[in-house]
Amino acid sequence: MPELAYQDFTVGRVFELGTTTAEPDEMLAFARRFDPQPFHLDPVAAKESLLGGLCASGWYTGGLWMRLWVDEVIGRADAHGSPGVQNLAWPAPVFPGDLLLARAEVVSARASKSRPRMGLVGIAGTMHRGETCVMRMDSVALIALR
Fold first, then answer.
1. What is the per-residue burial (b if ≥16 Cβ within 10 Å, else e) of 24-50?
2. CATH superfamily membership of 6-144
3. pLDDT means per 10 residues in the chain (146 residues)?
4. Which of 55, 83, 87, 127 makes an SS bond possible with 93, Cβ 3.0 to 4.6 Å?
């Protein structure tokens, strides 16, 4: 039986998701497959770019956050997917070897009108390198009521 249900996602609750590292080989493999832009793949081109060096795809950064979210929260919850992400921003680049800290804050919660045993939980997700925010997003999770 899942440990977390809709009632556990109260507005204002913060889930500290932990840390992860932007692994250089993983970043490059992701970029080659999904986002093959020069500043993600070529150190020389990246150094000459606006970003100043080889950096991760924002989609890779989002994947790192998602992994921590699943490991620390959703994997313990009676979760049933998500209708999507409303806002997603990468205000600063992620570089190889960066240590990133992720968190999720519950910003809204309401029972579903169309699915009475489900709740819609608004999540503000962030990822930081030190004091610098490298990703922020707003999304909704579908969580079953207890």
1. eeebbebbeeebeeebbbeeeebeebe
2. Hotdog Thioesterase (3.10.129.10)
3. 96 98 97 97 92 95 98 97 96 97 98 94 98 98 97
4. 55
